[in-house]
């Protein structure tokens, strides 16, 4: 059974869900929704503050499918930096399971895949091409 016709829809679902979860990181940092105590005194120009700005903007762009490849590339880089900045120094850099970095590694490669593959279905990028 051929399922190639489903690929653009699966890619869109991956883009939208990963964009949504990325936005949640930004809203937790800047709008305290959901509330995470460690972000209560966040400084906008700190590393987590700048990451929060990227998470908000790139996440919204990914959800909409607007400038998808660029937004995903930036998000991929930001999550890679997060891994090497926050998780790898805890030891076992080659074993994300041991330093709490599995999620950020997966984010990095998901966003890198989206940057290479494009927006998929249901995107503003695709409607602008028509």
TrEMBL record:
<keyword id="KW-1003">Cell membrane</keyword>
<comment type="similarity">
    <text>Belongs to the DoxX family.</text>
</comment>
<dbReference type="Pfam" id="PF07681">
    <property type="entry name" value="DoxX"/>
</dbReference>
<feature type="transmembrane region" description="Helical">
    <location>
        <begin position="43"/>
        <end position="63"/>
    </location>
</feature>
<feature type="transmembrane region" description="Helical">
    <location>
        <begin position="70"/>
        <end position="86"/>
    </location>
</feature>
<keyword id="KW-0812">Transmembrane</keyword>
<dbReference type="GO" id="GO:0005886">
    <property type="term" value="C:plasma membrane"/>
</dbReference>
<feature type="transmembrane region" description="Helical">
    <location>
        <begin position="106"/>
        <end position="124"/>
    </location>
</feature>
<keyword id="KW-1133">Transmembrane helix</keyword>
<protein>
    <submittedName>
        <fullName>Putative membrane protein, DoxX family</fullName>
    </submittedName>
</protein>
<dbReference type="InterPro" id="IPR032808">
    <property type="entry name" value="DoxX"/>
</dbReference>
<dbReference type="InterPro" id="IPR051907">
    <property type="entry name" value="DoxX-like_oxidoreductase"/>
</dbReference>
<keyword id="KW-0472">Membrane</keyword>
């Amino acid at each position: 059974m051929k399922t190639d016709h489903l690929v653009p829809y699966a890619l869109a679902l991956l883009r939208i869900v990963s964009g949504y979860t990325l936005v949640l990181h930004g809203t937790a940092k800047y709008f305290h929704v959901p509330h995470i105590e460690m972000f209560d005194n966040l400084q906008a120009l700190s590393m987590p503050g700048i990451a929060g700005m990227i998470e908000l903007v790139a996440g919204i762009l990914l959800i909409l499918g607007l400038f998808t490849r660029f937004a995903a590339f930036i998000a991929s880089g930001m999550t890679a930096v997060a891994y090497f900045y926050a998780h790898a120094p805890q030891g076992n850099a080659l074993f994300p399971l041991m330093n709490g970095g599995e999620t950020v590694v997966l984010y990095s490669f998901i966003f890198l895949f989206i940057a290479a593959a494009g927006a998929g279905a249901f995107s503003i990028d695709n409607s602008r091409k028509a």
